[in-house]
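Postdoc handover notes: sequence design on the structure in folder B. Input C-alpha cells:
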C-alpha cells in the first residue's frame, strides 16, 4: 500500500506536506506511514478515498483504477466525512454514554450561543456610542 500511496501523492501533484495537511496529519505522521514505521488505519484509508475520490480497492490491493469515476461535485465534503465519523463513534457507545454526549453537545451550543449573543450586545453598545 505504501507504493500506491506514494503514487497517489504524485498523481495528485501534491507535496507530502500538502497531502498530509489535506488529511489532517503532520508531515511526520505521513512520513512514518510511507517509511513503513506506522500502519495506516481504516479511518485514514477511508478519509483518503473520500477526500481524493480514490478507489478503495485500488488503494488496498492495486486492482482497478486509481480514481473513482464519480464526478467531483458528488464527492463528500470534509464536514460530511467528520459527521459520518462522529455518528459511527457515538452509535458504538452504550445508550447512557450517548445521552451524555448529547447533553455535552447541548451545553456547547448554549455556550456558543451565549457568546454570540454577548458579542452582538457588545457591538450594539458600541454602535450606540456613535
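Designed sequence:
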Amino acid at each position: 500500500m505504501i507504493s500506491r500511496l506514494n503514487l497517489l501523492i504524485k498523481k495528485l501533484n501534491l507535496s507530502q506536506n500538502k497531502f498530509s495537511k489535506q488529511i489532517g496529519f503532520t508531515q511526520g505522521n505521513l512520513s512514518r506511514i510511507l517509511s513503513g514505521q506506522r500502519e495506516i488505519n481504516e479511518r485514514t484509508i477511508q478519509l483518503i478515498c473520500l477526500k481524493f475520490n480514490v478507489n478503495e480497492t485500488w488503494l488496498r490491493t492495486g486492482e482497478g483504477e486509481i480514481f473513482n469515476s464519480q464526478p467531483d461535485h458528488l464527492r463528500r465534503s470534509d464536514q460530511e466525512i467528520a459527521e459520518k465519523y462522529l455518528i459511527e463513534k457515538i452509535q458504538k457507545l452504550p445508550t447512557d454514554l450517548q445521552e451524555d454526549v448529547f447533553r455535552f453537545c447541548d451545553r456547547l451550543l448554549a455556550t456558543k450561543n451565549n457568546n454570540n449573543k454577548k458579542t452582538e450586545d457588545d457591538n450594539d453598545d458600541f454602535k450606540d456610542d456613535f
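Context for whoever picks this up: The chain is about 70% helix and 0% strand. Don't rerun without checking with the PI first.
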